[in-house]
Amino acid sequence: MPRVLQAGLWGLVAGSALLIGAAVGYLASLPQRLIAAIMAFGGGVLISALSFELMDEAYSQGGFPATAIGFLGGAVVYSAANLYLARRGAKHRKRSDGKQPSEADEGGSGLAIAVGALLDGIPESIVIGVTMIGGGAVSAVAVAAIFISNVPEGLSSSAGMKKAKRPPAYIFGLWSAIAVVSGVAALAGFAVFSHFSDAVVAATTAVAAGAILAMLADTMIPEAFEYAHNLTGLITVAGFLIAFMLSKLGSS
Q1: Hey, is 109 helix, strand or coil?
Q2: Residues ≥6 apart with Cβ < 8 Å to 204
Q3: Are 16 and 179 in contact (CB under 8 A)?
């Protein structure tokens, strides 16, 4: 199979975890603290992945200037887009506790939430394709980390959508579409950036890392802390450790 199609397939695999999480969040009535704990664990997994798989690779490939500029740039762009969407009803898109507004409460919030969910997923999907540029093989650790973290994202957000009385067609249609877009984004990440220099590829990887970290701080960690409270740190560390172990096993 051509590598560009492999990239798209791996992006689709990672994105499909959002749909799995959405099904659990919609069909099962999980305790709020359990959802928060799952979010904290997913946050720890992503922090580890962006530290050891993305930032370290970006630094090795492009040096500090490209990595630093990309990292900060990714955080700035994500934060600006997130602020815009938050003002249009997407602020609590990952909340499972009923804080998400319904369409009746805030017109246009459904579209804002959909765009926000897309914004959260695109950076990590692109980087799946980018990781294939160097050696031709996908970073299994990156895919595993994104897959693991996508489950709680889809779970918590869908539980909140259900409480906001959004119809099943909206919820599952949204996550199905984002899973497909994740595959397309990974494919594009490989197809587009394989033609650029190492510095550009490194900066792109760092952009994704910066956007992911900003997303964690803005959306996942607040949801986790509100209900897991003092256990949030411990659970996040556990997620970090699991992903760190995967990273070291993958490189051995």
Answers
A1: helix
A2: 70, 126, 127, 130, 189, 193, 196
A3: yes
How confident is the prediction along the chain (252 residues), in pLDDT tens digits per residue? 788 899 999 999 999 999 998 999 888 888 888 888 888 998 898 899 889 888 988 998 889 999 999 999 999 999 998 888 888 777 777 677 667 777 666 666 667 777 887 888 888 888 888 888 866 677 788 888 888 888 888 888 888 888 888 889 988 998 999 999 999 999 999 999 888 888 888 998 999 999 999 988 888 888 788 877 788 999 999 999 988 888 777 665
Is residue 54 within 8 Å of residue 70, measured between CB atoms? no
Instruction: Report the candidate in 9, 17, 5, 10 with the shortest Cα–Cα distance to residue 153.
Output: 17
Structure tokens given for 247: 């990273």
Taking a C-beta distance cutoff of 8 angstroms, is the pair 186, 126 a contact?
A: yes
Q: Report whether 175 contacts 118 (CB < 8 A).
A: no
Two structure tokens written together for 108:
């246009």
SS3 state of residue 39: helix
User: What letter does residue 230 receive in the DSSP assignment?
Assistant: G
Q: Chain centroid to CA 89: how far?
A: 20
Please tell me the distance from the alpha carbon of residue 69 to that of residue 18, in angstroms, as a whole number: 30
